[in-house]
Design a protein that fits this description.
With 457 residues, the protein is an alpha/beta fold. Helices cover 35% and strands 26% of the residues. The protein folds into two domains: 159 residues, Rossmann fold; 288 residues, L-fucose Isomerase, Chain A, domain 3 (Alpha-Beta Barrel). The strands form six sheets. A six-stranded antiparallel β-barrel has the order 13-14-21-20-19-22. Strands 4-1-5-6-7 form a five-stranded parallel β-sheet, with helices on both faces.
Length: 457
Amino acid sequence: MRNMKIAGLIFGNTTADTAAVNARFDGDLTRCTETNRLLSESDKAEIRKNFEAVIPADCETIFTDAVLSEGNVLDLEDADVYIVYPFGGITDLFLAALSSKNRPILIAPRPYCEAWSYGAVFYPYFVRDNRKLSEYLKISEDVHVVKNAEELRALLKAYRVRFRIANTTALCVGEVMYEPYHSWNWGYAMIKAIQQKFGVTWKHISSEKFMKLFENWNGAYEKGSMQREAAADRSHPERNPKNAEKLYYVLKEIIEETGADAMTINCLYSMIHTGIEATACYALSKLNDAGIVATCEADVTTMVDMMITSYASGCPCFMLNPYLFPEDNKLFVSHCSSPTVYSYSQKDAKDPLNLYNYFEIPNLGCGVQVLRKEGETVTVTGISHDKLDRMVVLTGKIVRNTGFASCRTQLELEIDGDVKALAEAYEGRHWALVYGDHSKEIVLANTLLGIESTVLK
């Protein structure tokens, strides 16, 4: 996936120093035009410094400090997002020309206390007309006026989420999930919807083809690394988990060959589990740790949920089944796979991993128990599996790891908000969990993606 490119543009070239003008004004406007001046090189350097300070990680930048005509706008280098710093010497036509590039425009006027210019009167004309024309033509506005650096930084991060999703190549191994649609047709329609709604590129291979690839694969890998990575191996001694380890390397190679950034595998309603006598739980844990959004059960909608949540938070997601207990306001979550890495910026910080046999089919290896850090704040999300247009977003804390007759990684959560209200606003089937409070980032990204967020507080 290529990096998002952000352009910083200084529109115009004149300004006035507000404090200096106000300090010497004695009521006489005779020489007021003399208060205007050209932007200095130090002015431009300061704007560029502020621009670079808000750029998210892994983004490319270009900066143009003298956009002085409509022609200059038309000749600008292509970018994925444009940040405009408006000054005197422009009209709203400059912004209208920029909007024809069909990319987001973030307008960042300088504060009045620092700089006065005619740019501050012309950019609102464009915002007004763009809003009305977009409504009339039924096209996207994608224009924002930003108040300060914090808001600009947040918007850029949200646009980075949308960009990454639109540039994601997703791989589905096996037939699409039947549950919870109760219709194979609906499942395949969701794949089509994901491509049309979010711009995801789709790759698909059948269970039969995958089985042949698995059986014929003879690549070299370090055997036994799974057991060495585990804090404890509690899998059944009569079940050899070697195929679970091999499955990781087979999937890794297919992902590299297809250029996939996200993947899901049908591990319940297909021949794969029983055919290779292993589950994908260990493989999915490793892939999520490595930055590949990876889900089980060919659950393509939860894959979208995890893409949004992971891209917005910078953390790998724990895909989970939620259990809701309204009377004592508890949320229990579990699944047989979980990443171990806290976040992609702290890859050395990991939770311990134990190996078990798969819970639902005990004669299969292997299920993964990851002991999550108790007391940590987490964010949990669940997207609507029917239209991908709504998402529940909540925060809470991990109370404890638990030992119920359920999937191997299981947690008791104390949530911020009312579990009864959560049950009544329930969306999706599987949910996603990440460390930290990333609710604001996720909600803002959802807004840009056309998803309505229900935030539990």
